[in-house]
């Protein structure tokens, strides 16, 4: 990449762009350096506008990120909720074991639905998926990089300073009459043009790297994301079944406890008894809400799978007009710029 | 002795369950739950509350098998996604290096400018 910009000692290769050919003719006919530099800036800027400054996958990358966020948030909560509910059921089972005088019951041996390690395995893979999505956004907005802006501004300003230093000497050596005015050889306008041109060139180079390498990585990632979504969806379906049965069991035992308390000879505080009965609709509501939350999460997972697949399809150059041609155009612009710089006279 | 309401279904079937077998246990569970929801008879509730957990235990074992299998799948996927993330980091590095090339060009030009100021008559 740097060779294309800075190898000024190469012989000029064949120039295929008509614009470039014309540019060379004009230079041969004595167009001054400032105008030529301004023209470079203009060519690069125009070329970039024609080819698109930012990657075409930036938008689906953002859609992917938006699809990941609810899955990550809701999954973490779904796993924790399922474990909390299952623990509550385990507490109810302790009462049953004591009522039955089950000597084998030991609270230390109570089962755990998902260990902390099981939950962490799931959250870690979701965190990795978030890193992936953030990297995509970071890369696809690479052409707006502040780092590149700063670097090209500095290079542009320094090029202008050197140009202003060098121009009078060149005029002297070549025997050209010195400039009558005291204005610098490179005016601030031209200097800004150089900076713009360098920045645009940087954007072309960044775009080339992105367009060449990123689609492959996204396409490669798609089966992994689909497998992840399938596993997540399977998890949620399993948890949904467990939660339904946990709530059933809690409601069934509550019913049994309430009816047992109503038997003659049992002391039951009427207010406490009513309060126990009044708990039942609340538990049923929680059961329904938990199930709805898991339904929503499964939808979010499906949406995530689709969002990534859309991104992969876009990256897979399904639309040759927006991808292949853009890539070819970018490569052509970069290559021609390299040729143009290489063709500049070395002395 | 009260006959098991599991009928010909085993209380300890091989896990994972086949889809057909799982459906059979789910159907039995659902029938028991429907009975529980529609009775206020203490004996029936106590009996169903004894037998339904047996069916639930089979389904639970199958569920835990799936969850643990998924844990392994998640661990494997985590490694694969990390590998892709490493590739993306390298790509970000390449992009940064483009900017750094421009920065280096700026530094070189500064150096040239300094040299020019030191050469008399230029």
Folded structure, characterized:
- The complex is a heterodimer of chains A (347) and B (122).
- Chain A has helices spanning 2-6, 18-28, 33-51, 58-99, 116-140, 146-174, 188-261, 270-315, 324-342.
- Chain A is 78% helix and 0% strand.
- Chain A starts with a helix and ends in a 5-residue tail after the last helix.
- With 122 residues, chain B is an all-alpha fold.
- Chain B has one domain.
- Chain B contains 2 helices and no strands.
- In chain B, helix 1 crosses helix 2 (42-118).
- The longest helix of chain B has 77 residues, at 42-118.
How would the blueprint of this fold be written?
The complex is a heterodimer of chains A (347) and B (122).
Chain A: H1 2-6, H2 18-28, H3 33-51, H4 58-99, H5 116-140, H6 146-174, H7 188-261, H8 270-315, H9 324-342
Helix pairs in contact in A: 3-7, 3-9, 4-5, 4-7, 4-8, 5-7, 6-7, 7-8, 7-9
Chain B: H1 19-37, H2 42-118
Helix pairs in contact in B: 1-2
Terminal Cα span of chain B:
114 Å
Helix share, percent of chain B:
over 70%
How many distinct folded domains of chain A?
A: 1
Rounded radius of gyration of chain B (Å): 35 Å
Residues in helices of chain A, as a percent range = over 70%
Bin the strand percentage of chain B.
under 5%
Shape of chain A: rod-shaped
Care to count the β-strands of chain B?
0
Rg over alpha carbons of chain A: 35 Å
Mean pLDDT of chain B: 88
User: Structural class, from secondary structure content of chain A?
Assistant: mainly alpha
* Count of runs of 4 or more consecutive helical residues of chain A: 9
In total, the number of strands of chain A is: 0
Low-confidence stretches of chain A: 1-31, 37-54, 326-347
Please write the string of helix (H) and strand (E) elements of chain A: HHHHHHHHH
Number of helices of chain B: 2
Oligomer: heterodimer
């Amino acid at each position: 990449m740097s060779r294309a910009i800075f190898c000024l000692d190469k012989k000029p290769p064949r120039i295929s762009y008509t614009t470039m050919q014309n540019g060379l003719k004009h230079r041969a006919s004595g167009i001054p350096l400032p105008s030529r530099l301004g023209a470079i800036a203009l060519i690069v800027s125009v070329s970039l506008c024609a080819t698109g400054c930012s990657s075409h996958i930036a938008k689906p990358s953002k859609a992917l990120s938006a699809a990941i966020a609810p899955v990550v948030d809701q999954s973490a909560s779904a796993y924790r909720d399922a474990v909390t509910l299952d623990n509550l059921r385990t507490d109810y089972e302790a009462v049953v074991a004591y009522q039955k005088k089950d000597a084998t019951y030991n609270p230390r041996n109570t089962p755990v639905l998902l260990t902390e390690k099981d939950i962490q395995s799931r959250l870690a893979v979701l965190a990795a998926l978030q890193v992936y999505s953030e990297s995509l956004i970071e890369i696809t907005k690479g052409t707006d990089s502040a780092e590149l802006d700063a670097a090209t501004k500095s290079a542009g300003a320094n090029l202008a300073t050197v140009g202003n230093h060098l121009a009078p000497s060149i005029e002297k050596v070549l025997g050209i009459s010195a400039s009558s005015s005291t204005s610098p050889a490179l005016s601030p306008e031209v200097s800004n043009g150089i900076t713009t041109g360098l920045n645009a060139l940087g954007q072309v180079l960044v775009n080339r790297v992105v367009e060449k390498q990123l689609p492959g990585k996204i396409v490669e990632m798609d089966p992994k994301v689909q497998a992840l979504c399938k596993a997540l969806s399977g998890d949620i379906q399993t948890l949904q079944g467990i939660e339904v049965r946990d709530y059933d069991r809690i409601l069934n035992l509550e019913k049994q406890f309430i009816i047992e308390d109503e038997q003659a000879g049992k002391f039951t505080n009427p207010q406490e008894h009513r309060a126990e009965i009044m708990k039942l609709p609340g538990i049923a509501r929680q059961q329904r809400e938990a199930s709805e939350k898991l339904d929503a999460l499964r939808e979010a997972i499906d949406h995530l799978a689709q969002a990534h697949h859309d991104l992969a399809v876009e990256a897979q150059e399904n639309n040759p007009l927006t991808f292949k041609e853009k890539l070819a155009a970018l490569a052509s612009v970069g290559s021609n710029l390299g040729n143009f710089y290489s063709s500049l006279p070395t002395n | 002795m009260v006959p098991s309401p599991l009928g010909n279904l085993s209380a300890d079937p091989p896990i994972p369950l086949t889809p057909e077998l799982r459906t059979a246990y789910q159907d039995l569970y659902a029938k028991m739950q429907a009975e529980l929801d529609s009775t206020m008879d203490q004996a029936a509730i106590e009996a169903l509350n004894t037998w339904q957990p047996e069916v639930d235990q089979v389904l639970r074992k199958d569920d835990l098998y799936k969850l643990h299998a998924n844990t392994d799948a998640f661990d494997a996927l985590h490694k694969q996604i990390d590998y892709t993330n490493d590739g993306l980091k390298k790509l970000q590095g390449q992009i940064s290096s483009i900017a750094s090339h421009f920065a280096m060009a700026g530094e070189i030009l500064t150096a040239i400018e300094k040299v020019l100021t030191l050469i008399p008559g230029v």
